[in-house]
């Protein structure tokens, strides 16, 4: 069992620069909400990013689903990240050999490494994927999350797969600062991986395509995760984006304060 530390305490002692920036931001802005903006039009993506900006620590993108992607979109997203004080996480889920992911991360139309503070990778190809991404991302001060567990029904990310993924992260802590997972992954008091958790919803339990939702309370208090990732729960109703982001921010932060309180008691 780990000694409990606040986001602020962790920011002070974390060895990974990207993790430090994120934890400082969460403490400063009092939010552990990441919004996943999975929309296909540039204008809509920018409008949602602007509306949720004040409430999030991280804005998560799937840049390859945007029909009218251009360089200006990236520049505007970077500007919004500065204005509202959030980090950008391109959810690219790299899954190839090291040499290929180097190009996918740094080159092509999207040049992800040039603008996305955080990205993520599957561990299925083995450790070379981390080294390849690290060659490109570390000199730019970027950070990587490994997909240790997925939220969807029937996911194969369990048992030895998850254990091995954590072991890989442990060997690359200068670049890998945490996981996409459904529970806390630290095994000793020295470890401080950040766990960002998708599959979060307050109103529904699933989406008919395998997604499974838990509440912010279940994720933060019961499972000890750090950041809630919410997509359709926030942007699903276009008239309520701001209200829903405030609602999820409040729920996520209340859950975090409850966890702090439990550990003080
Ligand atoms: O296991 C996972 C990992 C990820 S990154 N399950 C997920 O749902 N995600 C992503 O989180 C997914 O790609 C989507 O962008 C977001 C969840 O969206 P929602 O609309 O279901 O909240």
UniProtKB/TrEMBL annotation:
One Pfam family linked to the record: OMPdecase
CDD domains reported for this sequence: OMP_decarboxylase_like
Pathway the protein contributes to: Pyrimidine metabolism; UMP biosynthesis via de novo pathway; UMP from orotate: step 2/2
Chemical reaction(s) catalysed: orotidine 5'-phosphate + H(+) = UMP + CO2
GO molecular function terms attached to this record: orotate phosphoribosyltransferase activity; orotidine-5'-phosphate decarboxylase activity
Enzyme Commission number: 4.1.1.23
Amino acids binding substrate: 38, 60, 151, 211, 231-232
UniProt enzyme class: lyase
Domain Orotidine 5'-phosphate decarboxylase: 32-247
Keyword Lyase: yes
Record InterPro entries: Aldolase_TIM (IPR013785), OMPdecase (IPR014732), OMPdecase_AS (IPR018089), OMPdeCOase_dom (IPR001754), RibuloseP-bd_barrel (IPR011060)
GO BP, sorted A to Z: 'de novo' pyrimidine nucleobase biosynthetic process; 'de novo' UMP biosynthetic process
SMART domains in the cross-refs: OMPdecase
Keyword match Lyase: yes
Keywords from the UniProt entry: Decarboxylase, Lyase, Pyrimidine biosynthesis
Family matches, as Gene3D superfamilies: Aldolase class I
Domain of life: Eukaryota
Active site, per annotation: 91, 93, 96
Signal sequence, renumbered to the chain: none
Protein family (similarity comment): Belongs to the OMP decarboxylase family.
The name this protein goes by in its record: Orotidine 5'-phosphate decarboxylase
């Amino acid at each position: 069992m780990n000694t409990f530390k606040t986001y602020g305490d962790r920011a002070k002692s974390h060895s990974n620069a990207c993790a430090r920036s994120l934890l400082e931001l969460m403490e400063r802005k009092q939010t552990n909400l990441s919004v996943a903006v999975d929309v296909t039009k540039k204008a809509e993506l920018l409008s949602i990013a602007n509306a949720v900006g004040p409430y999030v620590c991280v804005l998560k993108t799937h840049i390859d689903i945007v029909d009218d992607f251009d360089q200006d979109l990236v520049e505007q997203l970077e500007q919004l990240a500065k204005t509202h004080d959030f980090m950008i996480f391109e959810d690219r889920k790299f899954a190839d050999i090291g040499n290929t992911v180097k190009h996918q991360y740094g080159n092509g139309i999207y040049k992800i490494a040039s603008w996305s503070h955080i990205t993520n990778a599957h561990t299925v190809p083995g450790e070379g994927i981390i080294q390849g991404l690290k060659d490109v991302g570390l000199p730019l001060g970027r950070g990587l999350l490994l997909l240790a567990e997925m939220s969807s029904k029937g996911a194969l990310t369990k048992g030895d797969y998850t254990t091995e993924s954590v072991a890989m992260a442990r060997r690359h802590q200068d670049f890998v600062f945490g996981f996409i997972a459904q529970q806390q992954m630290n095994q000793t008091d020295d470890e401080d991986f950040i766990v960002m958790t998708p599959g979060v919803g307050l109103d529904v339990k699933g989406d008919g395509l395998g997604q499974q939702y838990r509440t912010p309370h279940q994720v933060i208090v019961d499972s000890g995760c750090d950041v809630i990732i919410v997509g359709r729960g926030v942007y699903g109703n276009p008239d309520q984006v701001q209200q829903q982001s405030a609602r999820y921010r409040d729920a996520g932060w209340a859950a975090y304060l409850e966890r702090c309180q439990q550990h003080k008691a």
